[in-house]
Specification:
6 strands; alpha+beta; 11 helices; 3-stranded antiparallel beta sheet; Helicase, Ruva Protein, domain 3; Tetrahydropterin Synthase, Chain A; GTP Cyclohydrolase I, Chain A, domain 1; 286 residues; elongated
Amino acid sequence: MAQITPQLVKELRDKTGAGMGDCKNALTESNGDMQGAIEILRKKGAASAAKRADRSANEGLVVTKISKDNKSAVIVEVNCETDFVARNAEFERYVNEVADALLKNEAKTLDELMQLKAYSGTILDLHNDMLAKFSEKIGVRRFEKINTSGYLADYIHAGSRLAVLVETSTDTINEKAHGLLRDIAMQIAAMNPSFVDRNEVSTDKIEKEKEIYKELAISEGKKEEIADRIATGKLEKFFQEQCLVEQTFVKDPAKTVLDVIKEISTHTGGDVKIKGFKRYFLGEEL
């Protein structure tokens, strides 16, 4: 039996971040073999994850990453149980490595994501390291990747609990246009639109909204023809609130977002359109 010295235990702790007691036990089990002890801690973390499955993980981080040419971007949410872990530098590093790996590769499912190569090993290896270091439920909740022929911009709100990706139809974005596009990403973060414009709203959704508004007006004693006019007016307000391009611009209430898009077009020398956006708010109902 190899001698398990305090120095050896400390070395394993420095390498893995696991507790001193866990490190000592792992070294004892591996007969002092450092690599063997690391594997034991990883396996222990993965095995104990099943016991944490019914625990709530509502903390964590949301991050975005964009390629240098602004034609590929990812948005990722990784959850943990406590703000203490969410603010830990190693957890932050893990979340960013997940996003980096996804930006460089393609993955549609969580299993595919976990098999992607990271800076050392796979994302699954890094995930098991996190489980070994922290006695919490930790998991990638959702992720998306956008590849475009246009241009992508992002915005991450302070604290990394809210992030946005926005995609445009043109790639001739200069510095001024980029700044305005980032303002639109901030608009999406703040005002949470459901659609880019009213063309995205289905006929069924429109009819359902009108029906709700009309029934409310009738229940308040309005005649049917008056209720119809009220419903039409409220539907218009619905479009102004839920469609990005029709929203009042939060940085200048004298403008709409469409006005800002037209301003971007003057800087790029062509007609710019918002093709889509992704908005992740930490822990929101999916």
